[in-house]
Amino acid sequence: MSVIGITFGNTSSSIAVASGDSKVDVIANPDGDRAIPSALSYINSDEYHGNQALSRIIRNPESTVVNFRDFIGKKFSEINDKFSYGAKPQDDNDSIIYQINGEKISVSDLAAKHFKQLKLAAEDYIGKEVEGAVLTVPTNFTEHQREEIIKIAEKAGLKILQLINEPSAALLANLSEDNKLDQDKIYVVGDFGGIRSDGAIISVRGGVMTILSTLHEYGLGGDLLDDSLSEFFAKEFEKKYQVNPRKNNRSLAKLKAESIVVKKTLSNVQTSTCSIESLAEGFDFHTSINRLRYELTARQPLSKMTEFIEKLIEKAGLEPLDIDEVLLVGGSSNTPKLASNISYLFPESTKIVSPSLDSQALDPSELIARGAALQASLIQSFDESEIKESLQPIVVNTQHLNKPIGIKDSEGKFQPILVAETAYPIKKSIEVTNGESSSVVVELYEGKRTIKETVVERQPESEEEEEDDDSDESDEEPEIKKEVVYEVGTKLAELGLNDLKPNAKLEVVVNITQNGVLHLTGRELKQGGQVVKGEITSN
Amino acid sequence: MSSIVLPSGKVDGFKADHKYSTPTRRPIEPVGRYFLAHASRTLRGHTWSEFEKLEAEKNVKQIEKNEDDDLGDEEQSEELLEHDPREWKTANLYAVLGLSHLRWKANEDQIRRAHRKQVLKHHPDKKSASGGLEHDSFFKIIQKAFEIMLDPIKRKQYDSIDTINDPKPPTKSKDYDFFEVWTPIFESESRFSNKQPVPKLGDINSTKDEVDQFYTFWSKFDSWKTFEFKDEDVPDDTANRDHKRYIERKNISNRKKLKQEDNKRVIDLVERAHNEDPRIKLFKEQAKKEKAAKKWDREAGSRKAAEEIAAKKAAEEEAAKKAAEEAAASKANSKKAKEAAKAAKKKNKRNIRNAVKDNGYFGDESKATTIDADVDLLIEKFDDIRLGEVANKVKDQDASSVKQILQDVAKELASAGSIDVSHLKYFN
Ligand SMILES: Nc1ncnc2c1ncn2[C@@H]1O[C@H](COP(=O)(O)OP(=O)(O)OP(=O)(O)O)[C@@H](O)[C@H]1O
Ligand SMILES: [Mg+2]
């Protein structure tokens, strides 16, 4: 049985397949593309898909459809056709249709055809029939949109095993890579696509993910970067030939297509050429641009993307200090400048996962599809009713601790056992000791978040330099390093362990059951050792 | 890990101090193997009561802030909660679903979601679990409302009569802002129009055409309202056929009556708005002004001729007056000049005579009378110009010069034949 993971973006889609040992392959379609443009074009009763469709937008815009994913399950009055570069969506009794070669085609039909093509590409690669798929959607897809997209996929012959959220899929792929799921951390997942940006703050507790907060910005994405480049090239062309290339759609489409190529090239190397045959009035255009110039040109959208991450954290009521890792996802996250800008928002202790900062990082364009494939392989052995049962609200909607719970050590420090946002039921234990004392107390506390500031002595970079510009010296403020430290807050309970030998091995267990009862156990880790227990409940 | 050392102290057994903070119910992400473990842990050996399941759906912290998130959250009034389910038709069915802010605007999706919320809130299982009364009367109304709302025909029937909260026109003769009051009224009535879109009321700057179109549309308003919802229940029993038919007929005629009343209501509404529309007044005034302006234009020809005649007459009068004034002035001037000339002559004559006298008659005082007679004769023969000349010449001259001047003049006059030399006794 083969199951696959699919991500369907407005700009591009990817399919991936996981083998038993959790190795994931992102599948290239017959054109050799792993990021398959979500585009369809109909010319003389032939259907073109992916890049073949996208390239037709220059010559046949009216029969080429792009950027329609977000229209699924929406009414005409609810959508914005700003990014419908090819055929424009039209109002058909408030449902959305396209008029292609004189025929009406609905968004669902288009999406179904797209799914069919993806399925074909997957089967072509695997050599077997695809029996099921895990599909990803943005977190703000409505219930209705989720139902719709499942129907559409099934109409296309794709059985949807499960629908999962894009950021969770991306994080799953990232954490599965080197088994980091069991580390309790708070992640920012920043997904920068073509025509939208999506952010999520996800806590991982005992391997279970919870989305704490999200943010979405429609219109912010790689398209804006393309536009900045297009405008840059247009200006240069105009200067050279005194011809305005923005006047006709075909020139604009050519500019855009080449800008995308240049943009992607500049993610990898420092300079790129740009050549467009017959850009306008028969003039060819050849030039080159370096990364720095591009970054200047696209400064505005790039800084908006950075601000987007700032807003996401703010909206969650958190601070950059609270974030352990930032996972950059989506095609636009390949942009080195974006990754470095974002890294400046965070303290050094926060890790930024992006290919330009971390050569180990997976391709951000592929993360979501990989996660979907992993999930598909995980659940492929379950039958439908089992999956359904696991997705019931009673299973999924779980209680989460508001504050960390832990114990006080002999120095009065708070030692967490369960961190905030841990979902229960949960059971966790830590090993402790009594040191030299024969009687000790296990004091259970809630942690209190504080911010510890430490002044970092600045190392003068070099003696000479300091002498050179002493004007700078007076401006320099001592650098203050901040970190989140939990101190003991409210005391919840205590228990005593007495008559112990020095340095005995002890264990403290905290177990919160489904109904919210917290069982605290302290015990001696030896045959027939003492055990003390008690329980408390929540407010 | 084992490096954590517990604080020393002597406590016997376990002591609870405090409850831990209220947890937050959030959906976890159903992905990854740890989730699967969580699911099987949660499900293993458990059967969940309906109530527990409902609980798990409730109060879940929603991350995606949809504008519709608090859909159905509105509280029902005590009265509504106590409503007799047999009389469900008289309950405000949108309020029952917690949708009274949307009413006819609620779409199917919103209705479903709001209904779901009501079920969670008012499910009889839940009520009994929370120690409430075991009664499901309100729940029955919820289900009835949901049924009506999802059936397009029944919903139309209900929407037709759900007008209690529609905006109403103000009491007459009260001062009010026309647009503020009427815009929502027409907007709300628009929903009943068979023809869509319905023209909007507009504002004070709307053109006459727009306003005319608006009233034309509304004066022919064609509404889809239908009044089945007000029907009296038709008895089920087949035994009493006549009674059944009677009720049916009564219902039909009642519907017709209500429909007529409603049509009349719209006509009155439109008429009143038209009467009180400040734009209509404005257009009337404007029309009046335009008419006056047209009349003015029409009479322009004759008015112009009359104006020209009047102007000509005025000009002529003016000219005549001016001429008269000038004549008078010049007349006055010549008189003055004559008088001045006379005075000048006199003065000149006197000056000449005096010049002779003052110079002692040129030493011939004995002949003074003769000389005076000759001077007088000469002076009489001088014209005005010569008089002036001579008077000027003799002025301040000595005796011989004066004598010479006069002799020369005499000679001149004689040669000109204007004086008879014989008449001159001295200057000859
Ligand atoms: N190597 C690269 N460097 C820079 N940008 C890239 C690179 N590869 C892809 N992109 C850009 O990423 C964007 C597409 O990203 P992605 O495939 O994640 O979008 P999507 O999720 O399909 O679209 P959307 O966000 O519009 O729904 C495009 O603007 C594309 O040009
Ligand atoms: Mg995306």
UniProtKB/TrEMBL annotation, chain A:
Task: Name the segments for region: Disordered.
Answer: 453-482
Which keywords annotate this record? ATP-binding, Nucleotide-binding
Q: Where is the composition biased (Acidic residues)?
A: 462-478
Q: Which GO terms describe its molecular function?
A: ATP binding; ATP-dependent protein folding chaperone
How is this protein annotated for GO cellular component?
Answer: cytosol; nucleus
Q: What family is it from?
A: Belongs to the heat shock protein 70 family.
Against PANTHER family, the record matches this protein to: HEAT SHOCK PROTEIN PDR13, HSC70CB, ISOFORM G-RELATED
- What name goes with this protein? Ribosome-associated complex subunit SSZ1
TrEMBL record, chain B:
**This protein's UniProt keywords:** Chaperone, Cytoplasm
Protein name listed in UniProt: J domain-containing protein
The main location is cytoplasm
Picking any one GO biological process from the record gives: 'de novo' cotranslational protein folding
Extract the SUPFAM superfamilies matched here.
Chaperone J-domain
Q: PROSITE patterns per the record?
A: DNAJ_2
Which intervals of the chain are annotated as region Disordered?
1-25, 63-82, 326-352
Biased composition of type Acidic residues is found at 66-79
Entry's transmembrane regions: none
* CDD domains the UniProt entry points to: DnaJ, zuotin_NTD
Q: Which Pfam families does this entry report, sorted A to Z?
A: DnaJ, RAC_head, ZUO1-like_ZHD, Zuotin_N
Tell me where in this chain the J domain is found. Answer: 92-162
Q: Which organism is it from?
A: Candida verbasci
- Which InterPro entries does UniProt cross-reference here? DnaJ_domain, J_dom_sf, RAC_head, RAC_head_sf, ZUO1-like_ZHD, Zuotin/DnaJC2, Zuotin_N
Q: Which GO terms describe its molecular function?
A: Hsp70 protein binding; ribosome binding
